[in-house]
Automatic annotation (TrEMBL):
Protein name listed in UniProt: Apolipoprotein C-II
Signal sequence, renumbered to the chain: 1-20
Family annotation (Pfam families): Apo-CII
Known function: Component of chylomicrons, very low-density lipoproteins (VLDL), low-density lipoproteins (LDL), and high-density lipoproteins (HDL) in plasma. Plays an important role in lipoprotein metabolism as an activator of lipoprotein lipase.
InterPro entries: Apo-CII, ApoC-II_dom_sf
Superkingdom classification of source: Eukaryota
Subcellular location: Secreted
Family: Belongs to the apolipoprotein C2 family.
GO cellular component, one term: very-low-density lipoprotein particle
Species the sequence originates in: Amphilophus citrinellus
Lineage, broadest ranks: Eukaryota, Metazoa, Chordata, Craniata, Vertebrata
Molecular-function GO term, any one: phospholipase binding
Main localization (coarse): secreted
Amino acid sequence: MNKLLVITVLVAVFALSAESFRVPRQADEEEQGTISKITDTVKSYYAGAVNTASEYLEQIKGLKLEEKAKNLYTETSNIMSTYLGIAQDQLYHIFHH
């Protein structure tokens, strides 16, 4: 019986001393529910994705791809018209001579 009393007293002392070492929660965590935590997490992921996409767009604009594509189209059109003109002349001389 004495052992049970000693163990009970020791457990009570440890429980009280452990209670004094607890760190109190911050008020924000107590007020913030699970849904608001999930909402905040989703908002932060969305903001990160938008920022990353904006950075990629700025990098692409920095490369001036639109201008390069227009130049490529113009050069290709000029080259094709030249070669089609040459082919037309060749066909004309083959069939009319």
